[in-house]
């Protein structure tokens, strides 16, 4: 079934359900309260759905609002509120025959009369006899009831989405079942051919057996001849019988095996075995994934009794996000990828990459981190590991299955400085050296430290031959930090170079044995009579113009490595 047709049908089902609910355009679909000019003003979300101000404020979480209708997540504007739906207000005013409050506000104040609103305000005369405490309790209870109503409607929306998904899945499963039934029918047809062929072979085998018996009888006759006349007759009969049997034997040998029958049987055997093997492989992979997820959930479960006795553990443990039908459903439907899927770039994988839903996962010191994999300009990039979890339904792949263990490989640094867009610099790590392997780790963050958010800290020989810039101090950003991640960094087979773009080692002071995570980049060529840089482990392959522009900044520390990572694949 065409995915577009599935999506269109799902949208039609959602629209039909919304129509069946019979929403009143004068009321907020969440709290079922009439819109007014004060607390219940209609406001539009970017997805197009309209709700009252109170309900939208109640839906705000960490600067985001999730639409109760379509479940799209929107960022709260800088002003703190979404735009007012003036068209809705004007439409409701025309329905009610009232004038806008902005037109009647001044006249109302001058005349000492209240300003009319979109909805008739409740009569407060009966409430004036109630104490302030009781009115506060009523207001608090009203807010609780409204929150409960929003919760019920939220659950209805989730159930509607789930029901729609079930309907689509049912159709998809029926389609798969029809295709599987076709395969089964073809397999049954092949089995029928086998039985028919068996029957024909058995029939021919019996005929051959009868022919053999006739030959034995003829042989006995030839051995029992007693006269000349009888001998000539026996010879003629034996010769005729032998010729007939030979012709029949040759015809049957040419008849079997039948090429179309054997080809059909073989094709169905191969197809059926391949289908069964694929099913078994997929089931094993899903079982392993479920076991891994169950193990992670079990390890992440907090012992309630132990937590009560340990205040520090209780305060440091982050609160788990609320679990809903849709979040659990999205977690169950999270697609899985293999490393080869990323390099083959088949349409499903490409779609996930273009949607930003592919991540590499890595566990360090018991904590799982995620690195986004992006497809940009026909290049596949793995960005540095981050603490935040990927979005729902993202596909993940272990990072050690895609990241090269050692050079040669291509890594990238995204540089940025004030009033300038990010500049991507590609570094080709040519020889397999300790510094090259450490550079990969610091670009991905696999060992914890990372070049991301570090700054350049030194510019040497500005404007002169051999001008170079230094960076990579992930601890202090001043060249006095950057502890090494590997021992014996100076033991590698490093190259010499005088050319701009060479990436080389930088050590503290004059002690060449004190190598660390810091690196240098030659901005300008060295003079021929000068000594070359002899600790080169890579060179700039693209983005040298950006490095040269970064070196012109008044403060070199303004140049920041905004992001970094590894190029997994490039044209």
UniProtKB/TrEMBL annotation:
PROSITE patterns: ZF_RING_1, ZF_RING_2. Residues 9-22 have a biased composition (Basic and acidic residues). Residues 28-71 form the RING-type domain. Keywords: Metal-binding, Zinc, Zinc-finger. InterPro entries: Cyclophilin-like_dom_sf, TRIM45/56/19-like, Znf-RING_euk, Znf_RING, Znf_RING/FYVE/PHD, Znf_RING_CS. GO terms for molecular function: zinc ion binding. It comes from the Eukaryota. Transmembrane segments: none annotated. It holds the Pfam family zf-RING_UBOX. Residues 1-22, 290-320, 468-487 are annotated as: Disordered. PANTHER family: BONUS, ISOFORM C-RELATED (PTHR25462), MEIOTIC P26, ISOFORM F (PTHR25462:SF296). This is RING-type domain-containing protein.
